[in-house]
Structures are given as structure tokens and as C-alpha cells.
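QA checklist item 7 of 12: single-chain prediction sanity check.
[x] sequence parsed
[x] length recorded as 454
[x] structure emitted
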Amino acid sequence: MSDKRSMSRRGFLRATAFTTVGLALAACAAPAAPASAPAAGSGESAAPAAAPAAEKVTVRFHARIGQQEDALYDMQMPKFMAENPNIEIVKESFPGAEFNTKMSTMQAGGTLGDVMWSALGGSTIQFAYAQNQIASVSDLAASEGVDLSQWYEGCLNAITLEGNLLGLPFKSHPGLAIIYYNQNILDEAGVAYPTAATTLAEQVEIAKAATKKEGDRITQFGYLPGTDWKSHVTIFRAFGTELINEEGTVFQLNSELGMQAINHLYDFFHTHQVSPSPDQILGSGNEMWISGVLGLIQGGTSTSVTGGAIGDKFKWMVAPNAVGPAGVGGSDFEVDAYCVTTTTTHAPEAFKWVQYLCSKDSGIQLGLIGGTVGGRPDVYNAPELLVFPFRQVFKEVMDNAQASRIIANWRQTEAQNTFAQLMQPLWAGEEQPTQAFIDSVTEQVQTIMDLPKP
């Protein structure tokens, strides 16, 4: 670790949040079964009803730019159009950071297309619904006899709002529920690999054994946990509590069990000194993992793409999050979706393309390209993917993933960003997890959760 680059506070926040989409998911009590169409103008529009056109129609779809996704679109668009010669698919891609703004601008200008990407991350799908950009597909699914059991129920619940199914799951994973481990480091340390039965206490001992020092300088860190909102969701669940209540109205950071979870995370950085603090992170967390100076790292399924950069530097494998006092390691359904817009005049054709993007074949191809796969049991169970040993662990965690929760006023991004900034001094060692400090963070995030919907 001769590279003296250190990471900014903002970079540290990114480095300790390992998920491609950084998703924050909704927990919806409403069933995923098709619901009746709401009244026009209510902000809960159903896709405009229209018979499939006999002439060739153009379906414009708005995609978020991504290497994995773009490879899939290039593969699937020609196949779909060959199978459906009366439909022309036109892709219009936008960077993720600009996506919401682009959709709002196009909607205001009357140029919104027929199909659009959305996600639970940052309450993106709730924002699109509130802005009347996306339509309920409940009636379309019912009229075409779509078997919704093809997708994980937790994924469907997460994108069902006020009784309206807002799209179909395109990609999904069980949150920051995966521990990646360097087998070479653990072999050298003489410790057993983590398993689905590994406890939090045992994980601490593994991390200690995997940490190396040269004098007072740490040259190899045992474990890099996530410290963002989604990481707290998992550790809170491991301790038997929730970061927010079921209704999404109360921030429970300073609960008794929550304080225990926070102290456990804090100890990795400052008591046990097995995790790199902000000024010890070189480049990014992923870069440290790829370079082979981390024994363990917490991540999502998308972290598996680092395998290409690792090559034959070292052997690696994955395990579920360590089991806490509650008997679980913590997880949640996280979903990207494809939706039909409220402005389309070709709803049946648009929905047909949505189904194609969210099909078993598309979901498997996503995995073969590399990264997060489709939100379907038949994808997670696909033999083509299970030939990769780490995907067997992904399947087991996904099959048992816990329900998603998102704050009730849909200001998820605002709350998460504020939380990350307020908690940063804790990981930097500038603050300690005292009741007063955590109470202050709780109060400030709760203020955001008490605001009206955007």
C-alpha cells in the first residue's frame, strides 16, 4: 500500500456503499395482483387502453446508461423486432444522474416516449408516479394473462404503489447482503472461510486475523463494511430492528437495538481497527478489494463484476452477511423496473417490450454479461448462471430476502444523503456513537421524513 492517495469524505461515502444502483426500496402493503384503474387526473393513471395497431408502430424507450444494460439492449432489440415485425424499438439513453430531470423535461415538452426505466433507488419510481409519468400496468397484465408469479413477490410488492403495479422487475438483488472474501488472505491467516452460519462475533475474529500491520501502519485490512443507509438496513435487521418503521414515517436510528448495531459498526473502524477509515482508503473501496488488500468487503451482487479486474491475482468467493442476534444477516429486495408511460398511444406494444426486457431470457443474459440479474426465481435458478459458484450464494440469499421499506414521503435521496453526511464524523473518528450524537442525527433525518411529498 505504497500509494499515498487518500479519499475525500464524499469518496468514502461512495466507497462504503457497494451497490450498482444504490437502491432504496419500497415496502408496500398492497398486493401485487392487478388493481382496477384509478380515476383520470388523480396522478394514478392507467396506461391508455388501445387495441394493438395493425400498422407498424414505433415504441420509444428511455434507458439509463449502463455498460451491462446497453449490452443487453443491443442483443435483445434486434431479436424482439424480428419476432414482432410490426413494432420498431427506438432506444434513447440518459446518464443515471440526469435521468429524472430528463424525464421531467420531456414530459413538460410533450416528448415523453412509451417505455421508461425506473427504480426504487432514491425513490425514483415513486417520483415518476407522483409526476404522472408512469402508468399502472395492472390492467395490461390482467388483459394479457401475464403470470406475475414469474417474478419474486417481494420485487412486485416493492414496485406496487397504492394498489397499482407500476411496471415489471427488470433487475433485482437482495441489497447489501453479500460478503466477498479473499481466499488467499484467509488461507494465509489460517482462518475458516465465512459461511451462511458465520456470526457477527466470528466475523470480527476473521477480520482481526486478516488484518496486517507494519509497525503502526496497517497494510492489509480485514473488513470494509458499508456505512450508508442501505448498509444500516442490513445491520439493523441483523440486530432485530428496523431503520425505519413499517409505515415509513419514523426514523429509528436511536432505538436501543439500533444503538447496538451502530456500536458494532463503529468498533470495526476504531476499536478493532480492522476497517479503513476515510483517510486510509486508497482510491475506492472497490479498488482496494481488486488490489488484494482487503480480507472481506460488504457488497451487493453487482460487486461480482470486479472478478474481471481481479483475474488471477487471488481467489475469491462470497457468503451471506454474518448472522446477528436476530438470526439473520439482513437483506432487502432492491429493484430496477421498466414501466409504460402515461403518454403512450401504443400501450399494448409498449407493454410487450416491457415484458421482453423483463423476461427469463433477458434476466439470464444480464447475468452472463456480468452483474445483477433479472428479478425472477427462474433466472436466479438458471443452470447457465449457477455454473458460477458465487451465484449459488446469491440465489440462496435472494430466495430469503426481506421486504423493502422506503420513507413514506418519498424523499429517500434527500434523507439518505443527509444521513451519510451526518454520520461521516463517526467513521472518521471525529465523533463517538454517544446517545447525544445519534439522537441529533435521528432528529435531523426525521425532520426530512416529516416533510410533505415532493
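[x] summary fact logged: The first helix runs from residue 9 to 15.
[ ] second reviewer sign-off
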